[in-house]
Structures are given as C-alpha cells and as structure tokens.
Inverse folding.
C-alpha cells in the first residue's frame, strides 16, 4: 500500500492571507505617517495647546481629507484584524457570524461618529 501525502490536501479558510497582510501593513503605515504629521503640527505650534489650536490643526481641507482617509484606513485595519481573530478562534459559525455583524455595525458607527466630529470642527 502506497501513501501519498500531498495529492489530496484539504485547505480550509478564506484564503485572504497576502491581501490581508498587505492591507494591514499599508493602513498601519498610513496611520503612522498621519500620527507624525499631527505630532509635528502640535510640537511646532506656538502658544498653549487648547481647543482653538487643536481645531485649527484640523481646519484646513487637506487635513480633513487626510483624516478622513485615516479613519477609513483605521476602520479597515480593525476589521481585518478582528475578522481574522474571529475566524481563527470562534469555531461555531453562528456565533462567529453574529460577532462579525456586530463588529461591522460597531465599526461603521464609530467611523460615522468620527467623521461627524471631524466635519463639525
């Protein structure tokens, strides 16, 4: 009897590997650059940092667009991470689906709230 170990390999999972890995790295770099930009604006600002100074940082259109991009990137970054955790550790499909739906609703709500705060400045 011959044993052939590689011919009928069963692979499970959704095969998101490289795409998710790359998405997490790209969104992380975008968030890091945004953090450096905001930090530089805070460090090089004059006077005490209060609400007016903080709102002034986000008042320009390019900063609002950049912040919007970072909010979207952060939301996607979190979704990829939490989805992978659910897929790896929550085995019952029904519970995993409920958690994923809750996570999507929560993330969309948080992103909407963040955008509402941003555009009110």
């Amino acid at each position: 009897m011959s044993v052939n170990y590689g011919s009928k390999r069963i692979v499970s999972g959704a095969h998101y590997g490289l795409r998710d890995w790359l998405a997490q790295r790209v969104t992380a770099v975008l968030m890091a650059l945004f953090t450096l930009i905001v930090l530089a604006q805070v460090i090089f600002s004059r006077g005490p940092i209060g609400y007016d100074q903080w709102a002034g940082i986000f008042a320009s259109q390019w900063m609002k667009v950049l912040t919007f991009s970072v909010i979207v990137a952060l939301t996607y970054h979190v979704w990829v991470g939490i989805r992978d955790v659910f897929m790896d550790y929550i085995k019952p499909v029904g519970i995993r689906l409920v958690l994923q739906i809750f996570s999507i609703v929560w993330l969309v709500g948080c992103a909407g709230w963040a955008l509402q705060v941003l555009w009110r400045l």
Helices lie at 17-43, 51-57, 61-89, 93-120. The mean pLDDT is 89. The chain is about 75% helix and 0% strand. The first helix runs from residue 17 to 43.
